[in-house]
Amino acid sequence: MSTKEYEIKEMEQTSQSPESVYSDADFHKKQKKVLRKIDIRILSLTAIAYMLNHIDRTNLANARIMNTDVEGSSMVDQLDLHDGRFGHIITAFYAAYIVFEIPSNLLLKRFGPSKHISRIVIGWGIVTVCSAAVQTYEGMIVNRIALAVAESGFFPGILYYFTFWYNDDERASRFAFFVASSSLSGAFSGLLATGCSYLNGLGHPALSGWRWLNIIEGVPTVIVGILIYFLLPDYPETAKFLTEEERQIAVQRLGESATKKDEGKINMSSIVGVLKQWDFWFFALMWLLLANGTAAFSFFAPSIINDLDPDFQGVKAQLISIPPSVLAFVLTITCGYLSDRTRNRPGFIILGVVLVSCGYLILAVDKKVVGPRLLAVFLLALANIAIIPLAAFRQSLQRLQSSNSDSTAVGFSGSATVAIANASGLIAPAILDSSLRLDYKCYILLALFIVAGIQAIFCWWWFGAGVELKKSNNEKEESSS
């Protein structure tokens, strides 16, 4: 028997922790190796799924301007989406999404992550494929409601799921990579829409380009959902892709900031306690204000680009929407990583607010020069720079509460906060699909971001920039005394 095998066996027999068997340097190396394995397995699956989620959810934005140069081939003409009907479809989606999202994390807690998340992914993939068969405006309303029911709970479910695997110091960078995939989806959406526009009229029977778009986007989603069922691990304690030693290290490295597997009972008093906390409503409102930026860009970026210049039509508008999404992908990951390193969540929230606010201000003031207006589109794509540290900040603060900080509270506060924030899907379409001039619309969205910025400044003053670091230091001092 090798020395390493003997040490592992001895550790299991004597119930010693890995940290007590290995030196600090060796244990640190093993921690990094385990974390790398966890990242490869979890982040790859969840990021791909979220990219597909965002593509399937927002494909109407691209479908809306597909094949508009061919009479009778566009979705707008075939479904009669005139006079604000496009905004009504988005509103119907988010109204259903909000209702079914609130209890989502409680279902994840009840049935387990892999089953719950795979069910969601497979469900919305099937509904997306069915979108190709829609023939009327009313049918699209029903389809979007079904899509909302199917995919509600995915985003807050993943945020909650990360609390099983990552501690407070690691979540923002992982959130950033996960959410940044939605920014990258804007690039793929543009490419897919451009390619599918050339499929217009092909097939037996002949299908329009936007119908091909739904089929091509929906089928891979179902496949990924099946893979998630078999490959996504539920908890560190039961992860089959880790060895016994690695499972012990994965559990021990989390400390007290992670949600535990054995916290399986739903505690209703914790839910009531969350609803009584003022900071729950404060952060929910801030997230709601910031989410208007992502909702506006996700559903109306091609249309906004369409309005920048008469030459930006059809395929050209689809292609122009790609570079802002790529920039958002890079900066979202970068800022999430720096947010973890510096422990300064409010500072990065304010940075995101400033950048997006500048974008809306440029669009509101400059009505003629294409260059600055195109720069504004790049800035509008950066709303997630503010949302990522806010998500990490929210969950950390919930865990740091002296009471109501069990897994039920963490799970419910996450899903309820995201559900309230998704009301932006009702607000943004009402603003951007209204008869108001574009500059007035931008002033309204600018005002929402300014209010969110003021809230972030308040967080910096009230909680402090490094509230998680201060709390952990206090706990270390108390334990050592």
Folded structure, characterized:
The protein is mainly alpha-helical and 481 residues long. It has one domain: Growth Hormone, Chain: A (Up-down Bundle). Helices cover 77% and strands 0% of the residues. It has helices at residues 3-14, 18-21, 24-63, 75-79, 85-101, 104-111, 113-130, 137-151, 154-165, 168-197, 209-231, 244-252, 268-275, 278-308, 314-320, 322-342, 345-365, 370-380, 384-400, 407-421, 424-432, 438-462, 467-480.
Net shape: globular
Cα(first) to Cα(last) distance is: 42 Å
Question: The CATH topology, please?
Answer: Growth Hormone, Chain: A
Rg estimate, integer Å = 23 Å
Total number of domains: 1
**What average pLDDT do the residues reach?**
83
User: Helical region count?
Assistant: 23
CATH superfamily: MFS general substrate transporter like domains
What's the CATH architecture? Up-down Bundle
Q: Low-confidence parts, pLDDT < 50 over ≥5 residues?
A: 1-15
Structural class: mainly alpha
Q: Indicate the proportion of strand residues.
A: under 5%
Report the sheet with the most strands, covering strand number, pairing sense and barrel closure.
none
Task: Give the helix proportion (percent range).
Answer: over 70%
Name of the CATH first level: Mainly Alpha
Q: What is the element string, with H for helices and E for strands?
A: HHHHHHHHHHHHHHHHHHHHHHH
List the helices and strands and how they pair.
Layout: H1 3-14, H2 18-21, H3 24-63, H4 75-79, H5 85-101, H6 104-111, H7 113-130, H8 137-151, H9 154-165, H10 168-197, H11 209-231, H12 244-252, H13 268-275, H14 278-308, H15 314-320, H16 322-342, H17 345-365, H18 370-380, H19 384-400, H20 407-421, H21 424-432, H22 438-462, H23 467-480
